[in-house]
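TICKET: design request
STATUS: open
ATTACHED STRUCTURE:
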């Protein structure tokens, strides 16, 4: 992709650098500035997709304008329309794009491993400087129970797992091969000891095995092998901390699990359940928990959720990739982050282009 679009994607992958004083995601702001300059330099810009789907989201958008702050709606529409279509307006060299995605994964994996090795060899927490720049402090080392989990350039392991999951899925869809960079990404997600990250690795493995046409028997054996490894390690503690296994054993009463997935819907009416409360209206965290599904239903309602599913399925092109896209909403509400819409646009573009090229070849062969 053009260098500017690469920089925008790299910046957007650092989505959890949140400045407490000014209330902004720093690298999303930098990405926004680059987009504006790049957008102004473009000779033309076409809205190619996501036209009728916006109708499903209109109630949430309009109520957001009335009942919440306008900038919440603005940045959602900026992501949904401008960013998405910006990455749909260019013909990328697929091989070059794969290399660029690989570079981003390299950066995150190398920094993660440096932080991981530094702590376990010297007890030093590498990159613990975010507070000096007004960011929220790192949440990777609990001094009280001596529990450390590396997160690389991110605030916490969950954010690292989310970013590497998205990059890994995109890399595989473009590359359609299992190589060392995909393995390295999955290994570091595991080593982050994020509970959501464990599920993310299972989804990546499932997508790869099913896409490769591996028999169900071998897929089952692969997952059973992972479970057996975890059971063995729960005794040896070679890979993960005893604290992680304790969290697994009491998962339904784990504080972060309850905060993210505890269901206590506090909608005011059936109307709000179907059409939402509006983007940016306070309260989504108390509806179905602090996850992306909760945010979609609270802000846009079930009608809006259907609109998003149509967008996601159209981008995915098949049920397996569709489920991989849906899974990302089981944690942070990524629909409000720049990285998500760039990621979705690239998946959409190459699924669409691959299918179109395959159709052209089929037509050419049938006509000769």
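STATUS: resolved
RESOLUTION: sequence designed for all positions
ATTACHED SEQUENCE:
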């Amino acid at each position: 992709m053009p260098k500017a679009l690469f920089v925008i994607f790299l910046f957007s992958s650092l989505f959890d650098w949140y400045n407490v004083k000014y209330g902004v995601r720093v690298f999303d702001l930098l990405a926004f500035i680059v987009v504006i300059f790049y957008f102004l330099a473009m000779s033309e810009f076409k809205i190619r997709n996501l036209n009728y789907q916006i109708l499903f989201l209109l109630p949430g958008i309009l109520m957001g304008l009335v009942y919440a702050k306008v900038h919440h709606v603005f940045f959602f529409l900026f992501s949904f329309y401008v960013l998405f279509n910006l990455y749909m307006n260019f013909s990328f060299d697929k091989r070059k794009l794969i290399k660029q995605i690989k570079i981003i994964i390299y950066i995150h994996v190398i920094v993660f491993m440096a932080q991981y090795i530094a702590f376990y060899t010297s007890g030093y927490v590498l990159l613990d400087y975010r507070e000096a720049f007004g960011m929220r402090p790192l949440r990777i080392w609990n001094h009280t129970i001596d529990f450390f989990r590396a997160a690389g350039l991110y605030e916490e392991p969950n954010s690292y797992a989310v970013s590497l999951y998205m990059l890994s899925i995109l890399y595989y869809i473009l590359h359609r091969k299992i190589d060392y960079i995909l393995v390295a990404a999955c290994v570091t997600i595991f080593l982050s000891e994020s509970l959501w990250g464990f599920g993310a690795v299972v989804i990546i493995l499932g997508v790869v095995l099913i896409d490769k046409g591996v028999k169900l028997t071998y897929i089952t054996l692969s997952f059973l092998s992972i479970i057996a490894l975890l059971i063995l390690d729960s005794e040896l503690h070679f890979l993960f901390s005893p604290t992680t296994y304790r969290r697994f054993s009491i998962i339904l009463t784990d504080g972060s699990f309850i905060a993210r997935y505890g269901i206590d819907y506090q909608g005011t009416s059936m109307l709000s359940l179907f059409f939402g409360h509006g983007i940016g209206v306070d309260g989504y965290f108390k509806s179905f928990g602090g996850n992306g599904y909760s945010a979609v239903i609270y802000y846009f309602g079930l009608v809006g959720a259907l609109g998003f599913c149509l967008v996601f399925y159209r981008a995915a092109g098949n049920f397996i990739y569709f489920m991989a896209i849906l899974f990302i909403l089981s944690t942070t509400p990524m629909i409000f982050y720049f990285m998500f819409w760039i990621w979705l646009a690239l998946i959409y573009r190459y699924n669409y282009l691959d299918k179109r090229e395959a159709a052209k070849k089929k037509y050419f062969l049938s006509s000769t």
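CLOSING REMARK: The longest strand covers residues 18-19. The chain is about 65% helix and 0% strand.
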